[in-house]
Write a structure and sequence with these properties.
Elements lengths: L7 E3 L2 E3 L6 H9 L7 E5 L5 H12 L5 H5 L2 H4 L7 H5 L8 E4 L8 H5 L3 E6 L2 H14 L9 H10 L7 H9 L7 E5 H6 L1 H11 L6 H10 L2 H6 L35 H15 L11
The chain binds adenosine-3'-5'-diphosphate.
Adenosine-3'-5'-diphosphate (A3P) binds next to helix 2, helix 7 and helix 13.
Length: 287
């Protein structure tokens, strides 16, 4: 099929036209947030669909019905994607959504509301690797080129939703007080039940230990890989081709070690360090 790649420019970021349009971005800007809405803010390839599995389970006391009967993009829709306009009225409270938007693009009603946000951060080197393979399987995106070429694209922000550093800076410095919880992909991999307890405390839920264990079991990489409502196997191969690379690919921290040469690593670390040098937060990753 023909590829538009990232041909849609919006407020300083690039997006693919298959999933985004100016109309849906305007719809997102006018979207009316409610105080009980829950949002996971995630830079692409940092665990978005993982949150689309976790949130309905946490919010429904571990009831498996949503994750077994509704595709991830309809059960916890993207704020900025075309699909939201179609299903917005069908979402029941508390509504759970995800967004890849940098903080500066969050709509006015979000700021006026008390909606809560879970921000998921992942090691940028693993994001880059995950994204490199995603560009190969997502037929609507441009070919990533060589790994070295893709490092440059990533560092220059010529990837979906712009620079990772801008995303992290914006959300880390957002003054949302107790409306925001920061969590990392790596913490979730290391001890998912502990991460789930942290999230449920933040959301004011009090699931039993049995429910936490049940949710954790249904949100493992292995289980999600077999869930047709979450593994993108419902999407035609012309759009996402798992024969090139599955969406749920490795699901581990540290895969970057198999991909970066020492020169690439030094170049990458130095660029990220430079971008973040004046920030007051420290990354939980060695640079
Ligand atoms: P890898 O490509 O490194 O495997 P997103 O949903 O934001 O696009 O992120 C996709 C990444 O999250 C992929 O990383 C995918 O495998 C990983 N992922 C999704 N669900 C996961 C889970 N339950 N456990 C660990 N990793 C998961």
């Amino acid at each position: 099929m023909s590829s538009d790649g990232l041909s849609l420019q919006y407020q300083g970021i690039l997006l693919p036209r298959e999933t985004h349009s100016l109309e849906c971005l305007e719809f997102a800007q006018e979207f009316k947030f409610r105080d009980d809405d829950i949002m996971a803010a995630v830079y692409p390839k940092s665990g978005t669909i993982w949150m689309q599995e976790i949130l309905p389970l946490l919010l429904n006391g571990g009831d498996l019905t949503p994750i077994q009967t509704i595709p991830n993009w309809d059960r916890v829709p993207w704020l900025e994607e075309k699909r939201l306009a179609v299903i917005a009225d069908t979402l029941t409270a508390p509504r759970a959504m995800v967004t890849h938007f940098p903080f500066r693009l969050m709509p006015p009603s979000f700021h006026a509301s008390k909606a809560k946000v879970i921000y998921v951060m992942r090691n940028p080197k693993d994001i880059l690797v995950s994204s490199f393979y995603f560009h190969q399987m997502a037929e609507f995106l441009d070919d990533p080129g060589t790994f070295d070429e893709f490092i440059k694209k990533f560092l220059d922000g010529n990837v979906m939703f712009g620079k990772w550093t801008d995303h992290v800076k914006g959300w880390r410095s957002a003054e949302l007080g107790d409306r925001i919880l920061f969590i990392t992909y790596e913490e979730m991999c290391e001890d998912l039940p502990a991460a789930l307890r942290q999230m449920s405390d933040f959301l004011g839920r009090n699931p039993s230990e049995g429910t936490i264990q049940k949710i954790a079991q249904h949100c493992t990489f292995k289980t999600m890989k077999t869930n047709r409502m979450s593994n993108f196997s419902l999407v035609p191969k012309e759009y996402m081709n798992p024969e090139k690379s599955p969406f749920l690919r490795k699901g581990v921290p540290g895969d970057w070690k198999k991909h970066f040469s020492s020169e690439q690593l030094a170049r990458f670390n130095s660029a990220i360090r430079k971008e973040l040098q004046s920030e007051s937060f420290t990354l939980p990753y060695k640079l």
